[in-house]
Amino acid sequence: MRVKDVKKVVLAYSGGLDTSVILKWLQSTYRCEVVTFTADLGQGEELGPARDKALLLGIKPENIYIDDLRETFVKDFVFPMFRANALYEGMYLLGTSIARPLISQRQIEIAEAVGADAVAHGATGKGNDQVRFELSYYALKPDIKIIAPWREWDLTSRTRLIEFAEEHQIPISKDKRGEAPFSVDANLLHSSSEGKILEDPWDAPDEMVWQRTISPVDAPDKVTEITIEFERGDAVGINGERLSPATLLTKLNALGKENGIGRLDLVENRFVGMKSRGCYETPGGTILYVAHRAMESITLDREAAHLKDSLMPRYAEVIYNGFWFAPERRMLQAMIDESQKSVTGTVRLKLYKGNTIVTGRQSPNSLYSMKHVTFEEDQGAYDQFDAQGFIKLNALRLRLGAMAGRKGGAL
Amino acid sequence: MRVKDVKKVVLAYSGGLDTSVILKWLQSTYRCEVVTFTADLGQGEELGPARDKALLLGIKPENIYIDDLRETFVKDFVFPMFRANALYEGMYLLGTSIARPLISQRQIEIAEAVGADAVAHGATGKGNDQVRFELSYYALKPDIKIIAPWREWDLTSRTRLIEFAEEHQIPISKDKRGEAPFSVDANLLHSSSEGKILEDPWDAPDEMVWQRTISPVDAPDKVTEITIEFERGDAVGINGERLSPATLLTKLNALGKENGIGRLDLVENRFVGMKSRGCYETPGGTILYVAHRAMESITLDREAAHLKDSLMPRYAEVIYNGFWFAPERRMLQAMIDESQKSVTGTVRLKLYKGNTIVTGRQSPNSLYSMKHVTFEEDQGAYDQFDAQGFIKLNALRLRLGAMAGRKGGAL
Amino acid sequence: MRVKDVKKVVLAYSGGLDTSVILKWLQSTYRCEVVTFTADLGQGEELGPARDKALLLGIKPENIYIDDLRETFVKDFVFPMFRANALYEGMYLLGTSIARPLISQRQIEIAEAVGADAVAHGATGKGNDQVRFELSYYALKPDIKIIAPWREWDLTSRTRLIEFAEEHQIPISKDKRGEAPFSVDANLLHSSSEGKILEDPWDAPDEMVWQRTISPVDAPDKVTEITIEFERGDAVGINGERLSPATLLTKLNALGKENGIGRLDLVENRFVGMKSRGCYETPGGTILYVAHRAMESITLDREAAHLKDSLMPRYAEVIYNGFWFAPERRMLQAMIDESQKSVTGTVRLKLYKGNTIVTGRQSPNSLYSMKHVTFEEDQGAYDQFDAQGFIKLNALRLRLGAMAGRKGGAL
Amino acid sequence: MRVKDVKKVVLAYSGGLDTSVILKWLQSTYRCEVVTFTADLGQGEELGPARDKALLLGIKPENIYIDDLRETFVKDFVFPMFRANALYEGMYLLGTSIARPLISQRQIEIAEAVGADAVAHGATGKGNDQVRFELSYYALKPDIKIIAPWREWDLTSRTRLIEFAEEHQIPISKDKRGEAPFSVDANLLHSSSEGKILEDPWDAPDEMVWQRTISPVDAPDKVTEITIEFERGDAVGINGERLSPATLLTKLNALGKENGIGRLDLVENRFVGMKSRGCYETPGGTILYVAHRAMESITLDREAAHLKDSLMPRYAEVIYNGFWFAPERRMLQAMIDESQKSVTGTVRLKLYKGNTIVTGRQSPNSLYSMKHVTFEEDQGAYDQFDAQGFIKLNALRLRLGAMAGRKGGAL
């Protein structure tokens, strides 16, 4: 980005050291007006200090945007994603990935409201988050200018960053002077840790890495039993109490945390081409995932369920790679949402020392037919003799193959 | 099957009451010679009594086949399937499904050896197992005659079955006189329970249902740490000790059992069109699944892994539905096996009260590059500036879409 | 079906010899009231004779249903399917498959209107049509009784059928006395021929097989140029003239016929497990298929198009197998329809002796950007340097693989 | 690339003006030794002049590599791809895409043989070919340096290019002085034209664009009938005469050309994010595609065929995007090749004015069973009554759904 080109920039601002340095660096490099945007996505930090620090760094009050986006986050991003049972690479509940499009969306809204011609973010040039932010920016405002300081500046070591902060009178809290032992991202769905002491995938993560959950070892020795109520694919209550999306997820997080649920230590493949290791905590989301699958197990038709499952890896990849605001995500969502109309009912779970155990599911839309499945006399609900024709026609192509010399499906 | 048509039949014979009744029923109905085949697939029962009982029921010694198939079962069926990380409907490790093709294969081999023109099995007309047996029979010997007594006879109640047994001097152990509270299938990979007291999916399963695993609640309060060694996608050792496939799985089963690992209470969709509820215990398999995914996480290329993941649901469905000996399974296997050539190395795990926790993975074939991923100075291994072009071209279609009025990928 | 069980049956009645025999056979076998349903799906036969014949065979006037379903057929069945570019086994435009669910739907509606407890159709036990009819019946009315005479009766040879007709005073037109040389099905979308002289797949079909199209060899030596206008994925006009769905397809059929377009001689895989050979004529549909793909080529986002393409084989299989009224078809349709919102514009085509040649496409929603693609100076629309970063990050996993000894992506 | 860094570069050299300018530009900019590589892939140009021109431009004889790669091209690249029936975006036979990996592979082999540290190509920064070349280079030699002059230099207009050529005594043939009306790429599989006069997708291509095929309008009025023989998925003969891969494709090209077969005017989606319009001629490939599908139609099992079809779009995308030398392509190829073992036999075709018409197929491995499919009495090969059970169990989930209120599969 040529430095003369930018008039006004909206910065995704956390109030921390890094984005404070970015703020000053934008002012000094681009000589443009800076608007800060700080979102509460449930990361567990107060936002007041971010406002104070922005003021201290010379941002005009009318240029400071602070929004509580927790309900929107869960309702319009987390829940649609959970309808798909999305797991990236079979394991990861996409806690960081799903937050980026919402931040980007709000940032672009602010840019349009204040007439800014640029946006900036604090993600590095090695990670997925830069991709997620920038794909969303471009998809929502194709002519936006994007500043990614970590790809542009020369503050490439901690020492230089601290020096820059000192030169520009940016307050540095004592615990930020030293190198953090790993890097953290958090929101209402999850907390992730990566880098530094976690870089060797053979080394077990230190217990201090885990910040959102008690260790299964330390979790209480007693079982907690809960029910989760669903309507059309979304959780709407716990133990019979109706809750808003963010309140519900907050409560599930507390239940998960206490019971040591939702830790994941994973080596994953980044969109930018390298492998990385992350330690993720998704306490409430892990419970929700298990419960949602159980709810679907009695309310979804078999082929509806299998079709969803066959596209889940693609859907998860789309979100992981940052294509939330892309036609393919919308098409997949349309298909998934169509399937969820009947996913209504109640699931009962036991939570215990890292385990989320389904013990019951019921639904007004249940497709489970005791009459058909029973080992007892079924009053003619099912004619066992039909199975013979079913098998014989399913076998026909295999028999014809075997007759043609391809026994056992040999090719 | 017309009764005059059958000369000699090979029966999959467990030695239990049901297959003993079938044995006699075959003799009295078809008036044909019966050959019994009993396999040790690690179900945990001695086979001596099966031989004795067959003799007692009048089977000639040369018509009694008893085989220990445990090594073949794990090496040629369980391990290939685990290379695919196969989970049916996101959850089920396919423990029953994977045993059926091996039993069928051996049964057909015996039929050909003894010149039998028919085979018989003891699966009911409502379940998946009849399909799995019969598809395999037909695929391996397309002109085989198949007798499925449960679909043919009139012994449709427990009372009638017992009466028939008594009429035919079939010994009935005391505990078999009453109705079993649920039905069990077991082999070296897993144990399943279903039916009767498990039929209502809202009722939690009674603790007595679980036979292969200690409850997580009762499992010891200390962590067990192990390593599993892999070569080309298959586990070959535990804690550095090289083990044969069946020995290895037996040891993992013991470790899983002690630590309360591998229970699953699931409502699933049967191939014959109804939903059913099963309680599965796959102690060793659960550990193996987690370990194999971790091994792949550092040894598989991203797109190789995603391609596998995208086809896993199909592969699992193929096996669940009974198409092991079908061209599509062989094609999928060829693709999967191709990917496993590099899946060699060691995974370290903690086992604790139902949890299988990965704490480390290493491989001579690792694709994880600390040099590239590091938060530290990377000596030019990765040029962060490349990310800009990467993002801009990935965003181009989204920008063109937005310019054409489709902001955010709207359709 | 036990003969006493049926009170009133709705028969899909063509007025031809076969369904007339079925009509009488139903009366004499089930001794039930018969309601006839004859649909005009554009098969090109007048429906008056069907009414007369039904009366002659003793059907009460109020029990004779004759409906012109051509507009519904094209609008609600053909067009949704063409949005998907559905080709079964890469070739077949599904002309027979797509008609069956509509016939079934109307038949069930009539059954409910007249209080019938059963339906009957004239499809044989070897083909796909029985499956398509019956799956639709069951999906729409799960307790319906189904009579499939060809699977039940003993009129298994032509001679016996003629005898039965004569015994029951069913008039037989002279040309029906002999064996037809092949069997035909037709509707507004296509005509199919199969069986008898077509059974050997090495024999070329006789020219008399083709009834809907002139041979390319006989088609005129001059090119016909047309435009087709689309709105939201559906054709709405030809040469600028707005036409109703059935009128439009009728006109395309005429254009295709004259120009020798839309013949297909195919060996395909039936759902019931065998291969069969069919000769299909889909003159208008073939033009429509080519035009629709061309319309999408400038209006669909790349990933939207690829996602559709990747699911097309599944969608085509679902329809071929008879699962139009199934959740998976509805989910796929929701996904496809979502993508079609922008598929509006005009395609220009040349028709010539079997060829359908696209020569132009334009759209108010075009995503084709001359500014970006031009070989000329592009005023900075596209920065060629971005390609370097794009390639380098796409290559990173391949380079890491090669460094780990897997050159060229070797596994 | 910093100019001092390169010692010796292998240039993909056609002998034309553009790559001659690149040759000189490399010498003058990088001051490195240049090795030229010119491949005969059947593009239809003599290679002698390329050698002369390289000598004239000062390349040492031992640095001039000229290879006839036609047989390798067809045998190891074209044929494996045709086993998959690969069509990009439903239409394009990938003629350009499939040539790039072979050129790259040979270029890297030469680089290793001569100790070069860099490679260079003449593809622009807007197209797919740069991606295909460079991904292949990196996959085969991860530390290779890549020079892409069109992304680096300032010769951005035709005028500047000509000036540079004149300054450096590069001979310019008269017809190259002016702007070419479109850009051409050719090899044994196809010829493509794009750019300039073809840029408006509403304008029909001028007849002069087509260079490889006679227009269907001008093609002879008589039908040409041929047979193609296949072994294990690959064509091995025409009209009973066994031919080497390149000879066979050359002959099919002649047949296609004469009969006006293989033209395609397409708007496609490039990997770099924009749409472009190409006019492709694939005369022999089009015939081969139709014939291969017909050969598969009687030799492939249904599910084998459907599995292939479902992955074809992904396979085509992989090749289009340049990932021939990637693990996912090798995995897909393993799966596809597994299926081709039985694809042996003969297909008979009529070629006529743009049409490729299948009229017969036969195989020693045929799965087509006349005995089963016949409309005549089938001697019990198929029991029509089996269809009832087959349908009833396939319908069961739909019936259960309808009973639960979801008629017709409604969601």
Automatic annotation (TrEMBL), chains A, B, C, D:
Binding, ATP: 12-20, 39, 122
Record's keyword terms, sorted: Amino-acid biosynthesis, Arginine biosynthesis, ATP-binding, Cytoplasm, Ligase, Nucleotide-binding
Residues in Arginosuccinate synthase C-terminal domain copies: 182-399
Pathway annotation from the record: Amino-acid biosynthesis; L-arginine biosynthesis; L-arginine from L-ornithine and carbamoyl phosphate: step 2/3
Location (main, coarse): cytoplasm
Residues that, per the record, bind L-aspartate: 124, 128-129
Gene Ontology biological process: argininosuccinate metabolic process; L-arginine biosynthetic process; urea cycle
Positions with a binding annotation for L-citrulline: 92, 97, 128, 132, 183, 192, 268, 280
Record family assignment: Belongs to the argininosuccinate synthase family. Type 1 subfamily.
Subunit and interaction comment: Homotetramer.
UniProt name for this protein: Argininosuccinate synthase
Originating species: Neoroseomonas lacus
